[in-house]
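Weekly structure sync - notes
Attendees: PM, LS, DV (DV joined late)
Agenda: review two folding runs queued last week.

Item 1: First target. Sequence and C-alpha cells pasted below for the record.
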Amino acid sequence: MFNSEPNIPDIPSGSIYGKAGMEYSYVTSSTDPNEDDIYYLIDWGDGTDTGWLGSYTSGESICINHT
C-alpha cells in the first residue's frame, strides 16, 4: 500500500492574545490516510517551538501549553 503524508494539522485553537509570562493552552489535531501515528512540531512564531511531540493516534486531539 502507498504511504501517504498526514493531512495538514488544524491551526491550534486558543488565545491569540495574551500577557507575557502567562501560560495558555492550545488544541490541534490531524489525520493520516494510512492511520499511521502522527508527530507534531509547532512553531510559536516568537522564536520558539515545541520540538517534536508524539506519537499520537490519527485524529486524536492534543493539548499543548505555551508561555
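Item 2: Second target, run right after the first with the same settings.
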Amino acid sequence: MHGMQLSRDYFMKVAYPLLQKEFPDLCPGIAAGLVGNGSECFGYDDELSRDHDWGVDFFIWLTEGDAGMIKPLQEWKSKLLDENPPEFMRTRSDYGARIGVLTCGDFYASLIGAREGPQTLQEWLRVPEENLAMTVNGEIFVDNLGEFTKTRKYLLDYYPEDLRRKRIAAKCMAIAQTGQYNFERTAKREDWVTLRTILSRFTDNVIAMVFYLNKTYRPYYKLAYRVMSSLPVLGDEVSQLLLALAETIGLDEISQGKHKKYISLICELIVTELKNQNLCSSDDWFLTTHGEEVQSTITDSFLKNLPTQYEI
C-alpha cells in the first residue's frame, strides 16, 4: 500500500468526476497529480512513512489565465475531503509540504525559482539538485492542456551538458582523493575518525556520480542510495559494492583490505562507464586523470576555466 496509488485512485474515482461535474468549463485546462516532497513521490514510502506527512492528497494546477479560480478550488477541495474522507487521510506536520491548488508556474517557482525551468547557466546553478528531483518525481494524474507536463519534460532533459561534465570532473577528483589516495594513508596513521569520514565522503561522491552518469537528479540524501540502486547505469552494481563497503565495519587489516577492494572495484566501474559515454579515453586507474580529461571537453569558457576539483 503506497501513498501514490491511494492518491491516484482517490483522485480518479472520487475527486475528478466531481470536479468535472462542478467545474465543467475549467476542467479542460487543469492538471492534477502528486509531485514534490515526500517519500511516496519517489515510490519509497513504507509503514514507517505513515507517522507524518503521508496519506491521500493531490495538487491541482491551473494556467495563469485561471489563477482567479485558485481560492474557489481550494475551498472545493477542502469540502471534498471533509465530505468524502479517504481511508488514509493525509496528515501534515509543522514542516510538511503544503499540497493545494496553484498555477503551473507558481508550483515550479516555489521549488526551483523558475516558472518554466532554469534557462541560463546562472539559473541552473542556483537550484539545489534535490529540488530539481522533486519537480520531476511522482505522477501526473491528468494534464488536459499539457502545460504542466511541458515544463516537466524540459527539466527531465537534465542539466546542460557542460554543467554535467563539470560536475562529473569534480566528482572524479573527489572520489580519487578520498577513496584512491587518502583512505590508505589515513589507515596507516590509524586516524580512525578521519577514516570513517573518508568512507562517508567517498560513498556520497560515488552516489552523486552515478546520478550524473544516468542524467537523473539526486534526491534528498536519505533517499539517494535507494533511488540510485534502481538506476539503469551502474545502479545495481555500485549499490551492492557500497553496501558491502558499509557492512565492513572493522578497522583491522583484513577489514581495510576489503575496503580497498570495494573502493577499487567501484572506481573501475566508473572509469569503464566514463569511457562508454565517450567522456574520456585514458586507461589510467586513477580517477584524477579522468577528471582532468572530462574537464578538457567542456566548451563553456566559465566552467572550463574553473579548477577541475571545484564543486559547482
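Discussion on item 2: The chain has two domains: 3-156, 161-304.
Action: LS to circulate a short write-up before next sync.
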